[in-house]
Amino acid sequence: MSEKREKISNANDDQPLTKLANNEAGSSVAIKTEGLTKKYGELMAVNNLSLSIRTGRLFGFLGPNGAGKSTTIGCLTGLLDPTSGQITLLGEQLTRDSVELKRRIGIMPEGLALFDQLYAHEFLAFNARMFGLDEPTVRERVEELLEVMGLERALKKRLAEFSTGMRKKVAFAAAIIHRPEILFLDEPFEGIDPASVAMLKDWLRRFVAQGRTVFMTTHVLETVERLCDEVAIINAGRLAWHGEVGQLASGGTIEFDGHRFNTLEALFLHLVGEQRGQLAWL
Amino acid sequence: MPGSFRHQLWILVRLRYLLLWAHSRTSSGRTVLLLVLYLILMLILLFFSFGGFSAALAAIELGQEEVVARGVLSGLFLSGIFISIAFGVGPRAAFSDMVLRRYPLSSAGRLAARHLIGLLDPTWIILIGAVLGLAIGFAVLGGGSIFIGAVAAWLFIIANYLTTVWLLSLINRALESGRGATILSALVFVLFSFGGLIAVWLAQLEDPLWRSLLAGLLRITPPGTAAVLLVGPSFGGGVTNAALLVAWCGIFAVAVGALERRPPVAPALSPITIPWDNLYDQLAKLFGKSYAPLVGKTLRYYLRCNRVRFSLATTPMFAFIGKLMVPNKAEEGFFMTLALFAFVGFASASAVTLNQFGYDGPGIRRYAIFPVSFTAAIRAGSLTSLFIGGVAIAPTLALWVLFSHPVEARMVVMLLSSAVAGLFFFNALSLWTTVLSPRGVDFRSILGNHLSVGGNVVVIGGLILIFALAFILRRYTMATVLAHWWVLPLLAVLCFGCYALSERAIGPVAEARRERLIETIAGGNIN
Question: Using an 8 Å Cβ cutoff, are B66 and B230 in contact?
């Protein structure tokens, strides 16, 4: 690796944070796909997707159900093998054997991928150890995460007995425990209580402020509008739109296809088509 | 029964059969279907052999109508319980109260729907066919009445169903806590270990007092009371036995209700201190820094799995298996033990080893996102299985040495070599079944056939191989076998080689089939 790392301190964090010195936020590419395609038999789940996301961005990846969002995240994180196309993360090409590259990314996958028969502390410690954290750091971070996520009272329960929201919190904690440079989150806020969502959003803002990158999918468009810098909309496996959305929060608009959109919802419906079925009996 | 409830019940019964059909289309479902079909064939055979004229004829000719009927009904009664528990059909698979709450049914409606659907499951329909056949046989050829026989047959099936539901509820309750699961495992162990011996002892009882006491006890069981009703009782006997059968139904209905009304055990929500230096992680450290986290996780999964706990508890039984299977023949007993010792190390952890990711559910996806190769997870699972198997061999061998006479060093070496050979050979095969024949399994269950098609082939094929080996050894004298003691250590080395080769070869295959494996265990991912 050519990048030189330097330690910087953060006012809100006692621990030093790692930041790529030569890759200032926004100046280099964190995630890049070229002609990414994933087929399941005859079904084209992702069709020739080309994206480029700079470091230090909070990126929202939107699309209707079955559009190919989770498949794209699966390919970007090494969970799925693309049928064709290239993926570059942090300047390195992602392949089946990209073990070192995987250490630098954190993932909250579809279905959360928890080991249900472990306790929350065991699961988090297991994840931290798999990413190579030393034992004192493992213990310190697990205890801290459980405390701030309000999970320390549920340590006698296995993950199988956790509620949906608690499971999401554990999966989120597992994704960030090794302080990755890119964080992939598949529908991170759905099912979590509002107070915890506010806390997680705050963490994500701080995360990108440190020059790290977040790639997330969600169906909550208001959240994306307020939280994300940049958005891509995928429909039927194809990229339908990609651009900045920061201006919407300050009353601005997005121009596309000869139209002006003052909300992300309006743009989304324009791109994927409104569903206007009528039920006579309702 | 109100019209709308009848309609809802009909829809639910149809749904139940549709689910059964859908299940039969999966590979694991096909295994279960095959075994169930086999049992159905056996029951049909039973029906034709005993249920109709032949049973009645045999019974009347022997002058022992009641005894034959009781024997047949006892067999059917135990079959009903066995099929339900072992194969996951019958009341186990019917809808739970929680599932039925989503439909507009009152609590009484849900209770009725649940048990009516349960009773209309194929298991009980097959059994009622067999019992009715028996009743018709006695009515046509003997002194039985078709009406009384039919009523008795239905009451018998209801008693059988309720007994099964009660047993299953009891098992589920026991599995809610670790202590309950251990007690249950111990009970099953005792039942398996000594049940056969007790049955043989009872059958050999010659004291008339004991025999009449045993006959009296058998007469008041559900099969016993139903048998009296089928063969044509006197008026007084009929009323007494019908009342007894109804009482059995009532007792089990009350017992089922009591278990269902008990609130589930809720774990305490008070904060606890995290036990950092625990045994799992201490043991995992023995496997080196790179494997320790994976082995730590796998070890927890193995040792928390009820099936593995049960197998570990029953493994020491292998030390006595020769004596139990071939009593009074020391040489043949040793040969049987020698052959079966090949299963000692493997049997303890086979529930997980044969299908390493089966219990992970969606968690399997995480192996693909960790900064390790997918093969590392398989290797860690296999190492854990070898470790547990190795640990299980030692006490079993020690027990054999303690309770066998005469013992000589060559025997011990042969037994140890047989166990080590089996451990490596079956673990080598397990690497392949894990990758080529995966199946998602319920972690908490302790009963039922949980193996994949490949797993079943390995276990059944392995047992056939072992028994064939024991059969071949019977042709030789002990002196000849002991003189060739060195063959087994050599075999152990060969099996180790087989394991090492498989372990090396499995990597590319696992990587190539990774997506398919994940899809099978965690479910499809195409969105």
Answer: no
